[in-house]
């Protein structure tokens, strides 16, 4: 699959590739098999994993103690033994490493929709547009690092707009480097060694002899000279110029995803090329039926369809359409194509028609007469809530749940009607609480026995209420751990006026508490 | 062949129809009730909830589907003006049996409130629906109220519609109440304190019951007193409602 470079003007997010380099894949795997932590038991002594070659055993990987002892990966075992006589050996297992890497690649899709192998010991994950799900790119890297640490695999990570840049940063840059889309990659990467270009060893030797040691040095040489020097090197791994272009994103770099996305596909080969529209319509209707049957078998619905028409004269016409919701209604699909096929130039005839659904979504088998059933038996709660939410909005349909707070207006919280309720402490029954509460307490003018006696009369919304009976105060202190120091305490009173109307009012503060002037009164609750 | 004796006489029918309303009365009819109340007191919502609880208690005491209804959600729909005038439901103050099952809808307009009410009535998973609509909006005409009645009867979900500061216009509600708060009985331990919620309620139109006026109290369950001197207790404020109907906004 080539790079999904979008045409300019499209608002697609810039491509982001996460490179994962498993620094000691073979050794990590050997430790996992042996059940050892790093530097524990046998691993504390010099140890090497060896591979059999035509000239005898050769070191494939060396642990830290072995490196300190002088053994180098790639050396012959006999040579390494002379430097480090106590070197222990274990057989390496490249095939097992590769199989393990493949399973890791599938596992690494937790950070992005697809991932590719970068043998022998690397992974590339496309994380375009998913970083916000982890709380940003730095958080994504931290999450990946923690996940690999849990599996006891030592990794180096980097995030960059191209696979080449991400690989270079992971292997030769600072650990956890992030190259932002608007950074200049040439400037940021100029300090890295030329080995960061993923070149073969002999090419690296040539470059070293030419005195080109850093990526910045390559930019100083005229492009013509480089292309002439490497003119007969076709493969990317042998051509530094091609690698440089891939790293800077000037040339797309194909990456094979580790899992294949299966797209339902149906086609009709036509015995005789068709040139007329009504015949084509019939073929498309047949294809839509085949497609619907195939989708039904997989419990999928199509979101995007591609219709390819191969013409006799060698041209291919492609018509795409997208659906707002997954569907596998054959008539619906065929009907949508009815408009798309207008103005089609069949030329000498169409010999092959193919329909593909590259984007599908799960669509369960559903009851046919859903509306009629709802009419007879009533809708379910979820369906009812959906309808209410669609018309009235998220904020309008909610349900109250208790919250641990002394302040009456904070003692309840609103959440979605079908969300799970978190557990909470039950409220005390001996506290009286009103049936309804005003969104904002309304200020009232009250005649009361100063400083803190019972209220006698109050005026609310332009109407005077004589208070016949009252009970209180219930003193509720401000939540000092949350509010400012000037918040005043509240004395709540339950009152009933001369006509039997019951309210819940409070006085904010007491005279002389040093937190403001004369206390104000508020009406907050309306009782049944 | 129909036995002559099995046919009810006209007299028995009229007697049954004339049964006075009382709490705990079980009837097969799915109620669509209206409660007219002022917006500056809690009588409307309080009475509506008390009536809903009373019906649930009555049905669970002798109905066959006793326990099936107990854990269903219920819906409370308010339009914006009702929310502003009489406040929002407050969880710790709701009746204990209903506290954790509320779904609340704050509708912007009366049209939205009516839509939400009808959707709620068509949902089999709601135990009952309470609506609060302010004034006499144009959307709530006889046709709309008939739609609500039919939906309630068809799906068996009771509806109590509280009409705040409204005048009693044309409606197909089966029971229409006018409610106002009245002086509560004195609590035993603190005579100075307000007592259990009490309402003076007038059933001014009902399909199966003759009109009447009661003092209703929510004393754990709904208690009705047909006090003779109700007029003496509180000279009715209903007349003032008629005199100054408040027009709905929006």
UniProtKB/TrEMBL annotation, chain A:
GO terms for biological process: DNA repair. Residues 448-524 form the DUF6504 domain. It catalyses: DNA(n) + a 2'-deoxyribonucleoside 5'-triphosphate = DNA(n+1) + diphosphate. Residues 46-168 form the UmuC domain. InterPro entries: DNA/RNA_pol_sf, DNA_pol_Y-fam_little_finger, DUF6504, SulA_CellDiv_inhibitor, UmuC. The lineage of its organism: Bacteria, Pseudomonadati, Pseudomonadota, Alphaproteobacteria, Sphingomonadales. Residues 267-352 form the DNA polymerase Y-family little finger domain. Its EC number is 2.7.7.7. Transmembrane segments: none annotated. Monomer. Keywords: DNA damage. Poorly processive, error-prone DNA polymerase involved in untargeted mutagenesis. Copies undamaged DNA at stalled replication forks, which arise in vivo from mismatched or misaligned primer ends. These misaligned primers can be extended by PolIV. Exhibits no 3'-5' exonuclease (proofreading) activity. May be involved in translesional synthesis, in conjunction with the beta clamp from PolIII. This is DNA-directed DNA polymerase.
UniProtKB/TrEMBL annotation, chain B:
InterPro entries: P-loop_NTPase. It comes from the Bacteria. This is Protein ImuA.
């Amino acid at each position: 699959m080539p790079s999904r470079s979008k045409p300019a003007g499209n608002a697609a997010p810039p491509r982001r590739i996460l490179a994962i380099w498993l620094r000691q894949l073979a050794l990590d795997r050997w430790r996992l098999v042996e059940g050892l932590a790093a530097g524990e038991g046998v691993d504390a002594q010099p140890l090497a994993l060896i591979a059999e070659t035509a000239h005898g055993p050769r070191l494939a990987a060396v642990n830290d103690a072995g490196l300190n002892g002088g053994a180098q990966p790639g050396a012959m075992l006999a040579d390494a033994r002379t430097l480090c006589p106590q070197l222990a050996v274990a057989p390496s297992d490249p095939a097992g490493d590769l199989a393990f890497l493949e399973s890791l690649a599938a596992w690494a899709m937790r950070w992005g929709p697809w991932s590719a192998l970068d043998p022998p010991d690397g992974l590339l994950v496309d994380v375009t547009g998913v970083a916000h799900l982890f709380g940003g790119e730095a958080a994504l890297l931290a999450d990946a690092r923690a996940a690999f640490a849990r599996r006891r695999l030592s990794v180096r990570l980097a995030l960059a707009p191209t696979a080449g840049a991400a690989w270079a940063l992971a292997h030769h840059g600072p650990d956890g480097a992030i190259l932002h889309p608007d950074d200049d990659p040439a400037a940021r990467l100029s300090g890295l060694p030329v080995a960061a270009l993923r070149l073969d060893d002999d090419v690296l030797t040539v470059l070293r002899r030419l005195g080109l040691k850093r990526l910045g040095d390559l930019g100083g040489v005229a492009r013509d000279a480089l292309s002439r020097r490497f003119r007969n090197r076709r493969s990317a791994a042998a051509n530094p110029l091609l690698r440089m272009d891939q790293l800077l994103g000037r040339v797309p770099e194909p990456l094979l995803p580790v899992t294949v996305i299966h797209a339902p596909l149906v086609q009709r080969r036509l015995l005789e090329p068709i040139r007329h529209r009504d015949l084509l319509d019939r073929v498309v209707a047949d294809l839509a039926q085949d497609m619907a049957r195939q989708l039904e078998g997989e419990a999928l619905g199509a979101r995007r369809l591609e219709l390819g028409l191969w013409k006799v004269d060698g041209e291919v016409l492609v018509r795409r359409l997208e659906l707002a919701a997954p569907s596998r209604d054959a008539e619906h699909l065929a009907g949508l194509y009815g408009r798309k096929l207008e103005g089609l130039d069949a030329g000498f005839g169409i010999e092959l028609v193919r329909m593909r659904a590259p984007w599908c979504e799960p669509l369960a088998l559903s009851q046919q007469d859903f509306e009629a059933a709802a009419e007879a038996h009533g809708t379910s709660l979820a369906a009812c809530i959906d309808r209410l939410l669609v018309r009235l909005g998220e904020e309008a349909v909610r349900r109250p749940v208790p919250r641990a707070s002394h302040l009456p207006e904070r003692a309840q919280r609103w959440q979605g009607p079908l969300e799970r309720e978190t557990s909470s402490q039950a409220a005390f029954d001996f506290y009286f609480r009103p049936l309804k509460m005003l969104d904002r307490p309304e200020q009232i003018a009250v005649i009361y026995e100063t400083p803190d006696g019972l209220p006698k009369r109050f005026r609310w919304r332009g109407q005077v209420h004589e208070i016949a009976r009252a009970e209180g105060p219930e003193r509720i202190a401000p939540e000092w751990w949350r509010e400012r120091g000037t918040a005043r305490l509240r004395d709540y009173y339950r009152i009933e006026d001369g006509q039997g109307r019951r309210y819940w009012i409070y006085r904010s503060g007491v005279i002389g508490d040093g937190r403001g002037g004369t206390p104000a009164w508020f009406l907050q609750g309306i009782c049944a | 062949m129909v036995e002559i004796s099995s046919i009810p006489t006209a007299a028995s029918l009229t007697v049954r129809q004339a049964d006075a309303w009382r709490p705990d009365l079980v009837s097969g009819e799915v109620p669509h009730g209206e409660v007219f109340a002022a917006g500056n007191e809690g009588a409307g919502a309080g009475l509506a909830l008390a009536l809903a609880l009373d019906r649930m208690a009555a049905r669970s005491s002798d109905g066959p589907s006793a326990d099936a209804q107990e854990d269903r959600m219920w819906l409370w729909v308010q339009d914006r003006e009702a929310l502003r005038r009489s406040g929002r439901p407050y969880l710790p103050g709701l009746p204990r049996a209903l506290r954790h099952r509320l779904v609340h809808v704050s509708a912007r307009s009366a049209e939205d409130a009516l839509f939400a009410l009808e959707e709620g009535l068509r949902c089999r998973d709601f135990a009952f629906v309470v609506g609060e609509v302010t004034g006499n909006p144009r959307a709530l005409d006889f046709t709309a109220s008939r739609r609500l009645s039919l939906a309630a009867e068809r799906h068996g979900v009771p509806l109590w519609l509280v009409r705040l500061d409204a005048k009693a216009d044309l409606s197909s509600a089966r029971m229409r109440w006018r409610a106002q708060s009245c002086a509560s009985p004195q609590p035993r331990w603190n005579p100075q304190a307000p007592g259990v919620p009490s309402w003076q309620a007038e059933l001014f139109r009902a399909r199966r019951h003759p009109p009447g006026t009661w003092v209703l109290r929510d004393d754990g369950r709904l208690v009705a007193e047909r006090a003779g001197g109700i007029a003496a207790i509180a000279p009715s404020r209903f007349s003032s409602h008629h005199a100054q109907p408040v027009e709905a906004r929006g």
